Amino acid sequence: MSDFLQKYAGVRGKDHVQKLKTEGVIAAQIKSARKQAGLSQQQLADQAGIPKSTVGRIEAGITSPKVDTLFRLSRVLNTQFIIDGTINDDFSSAIK
């Protein structure tokens, strides 16, 4: 964990920092899947029936998507929505 994150964990708590890391991984996965599908943020938003600003905020890590939004995005991106407590190895380095 970076020095900043260690100090921040001392202020906000380790659970909060872990939550932020996990949300960052989700944001990176959505952005990666969108790019792999060849979609712009606007195209993804239109197909998922959500505002483009929501896609942008999710990908930037500014907001956490609601479950309904995750389901909509996963359908458009043709990816499974799985909650199993593990983190894909491709993105595990993003949370260390």
Automatic annotation (TrEMBL):
The keyword Cytoplasm does not apply. Gene3D superfamilies: lambda repressor-like DNA-binding domains (1.10.260.40). Keywords: DNA-binding. GO terms for molecular function: DNA binding. It holds the Pfam family HTH_3. The keyword DNA-binding applies. CDD domains: HTH_XRE. Residues 30-86 form the HTH cro/C1-type domain. SMART domains: HTH_XRE. InterPro entries: Cro/C1-type_HTH, Lambda_DNA-bd_dom_sf. PANTHER family: DNA-BIDING PHAGE PROTEIN, TRACRIPTIONAL REGULATORY PROTEIN-RELATED-RELATED. This is XRE family transcriptional regulator. It comes from Jeotgalibacillus salarius.
